[in-house]
Amino acid sequence: MLSDDFLESYHRDGFAVLTDAVAAEKCLELRARAGEIVEEFDHTGGGKTFSTTEQTHSREEYFLTSGGAVRCFLEEGVVDTQGRLLVEKANSVNKIGHAMHDLDPVFAAFSYTPLVAEVVSQLGIVNPQMLQSMYIFKSPGVGGEVVPHIDHSFLWTQPKSVMTLWYAIDDSTVENGCMWAMPGGHLSEPVRQRFRAEGGSTTMDVYDDTPYPLGEFVPVEAPRGTLVAFDGMLPHFSRHNHSDRPRHAYTVHVIDSDARYLKDNWLHRGEELPLRPLFEEVERLSA
Ligand SMILES: O=C(O)CCC(=O)C(=O)O
How many domains in the chain? Predict the structure, then answer.
């Protein structure tokens, strides 16, 4: 059972933290699997870089068709003009996305758990579906920033329903680029942007260009195995990892299938991989 504190924090602050949600061995298993995926990854061919400050990557089909795939996205500046890696391959990847939870058995076992079913049901999602997963590396020295945003801007439903479940796979601290969040910002802040698909590319609609009040954000430090659940309207960001310690994290985004998922959202899957009802999937994988 989740504590009253957890539920109250979620509603009041827009996020809630559960330490020791996942055993360290499970985190290390996921970490090892992510490492194998990177080893198998062919970094050549261009168009495989991810950035939250530059949106050129999103013009690439590689990104736009990743909603139903398992793909690696490189950090900025880690490949030279000849396609050679400038850093160790294991540190070259920004993230893996976006359907490991349905395509990779190790990720599926980590993602669809009785704990997740309890969290989403207690936090009020009636018919949850896990829409996307991201394994974020934020490697020492190269791990890039994630600029302030809300997840609803990227995974838009009517009404808003997205909820994020973020797991610390390594200890996450201010020093190695932990997440920062704005307590209460899910209630007080306007929706500033919407990222969506348009004509085979993507675009960012801007409704309000007021900068976020960064002084009101707090660090969300989290030891390995911590789960942070947050509302899709919660402003959050993370900084570049300038430390010598990695900061791996795994995050999944859950929506309510009773809400309308807009056709021009950037993330879509083919008919061969329909979204799965979360409660049934948890039961199936726990059987
Ligand atoms: O892990 C991070 O640094 C950012 C994650 C994030 O923005 C998300 O999970 O929505």
Answer: 1
Question: How much distance in Å is there from the Cα of 237 to the middle of ligand 1?
Answer: 7
Helices 114-122 and 278-286 sit at what angle, rounded to 10 degrees? 160
Residues 6 or more apart from 204 whose CB is under 8 A from it?
55, 193, 194, 195
SS3 of 122, please? helix
267 contacts 131 by C-beta, under 8 angstroms:
yes
- Ligand 1: which residue has its CA nearest to atom 10? 151
Does residue 163 contact residue 126 with C-beta atoms inside 8 Å? no
Distance 134 CA to ligand 1 centre (A): 9
Residue 133 Cβ contacting ligand 1 at under 6 Å: no
The parent domain of residue 131 ranges over 4-286
Task: Kindly report the CATH number assigned to the domain that includes residue 212.
Answer: 2.60.120.620
User: What pLDDT is recorded for position 57?
Assistant: 52
pLDDT in tens, 111-145: 999 999 999 999 999 999 999 999 999 999 999 99
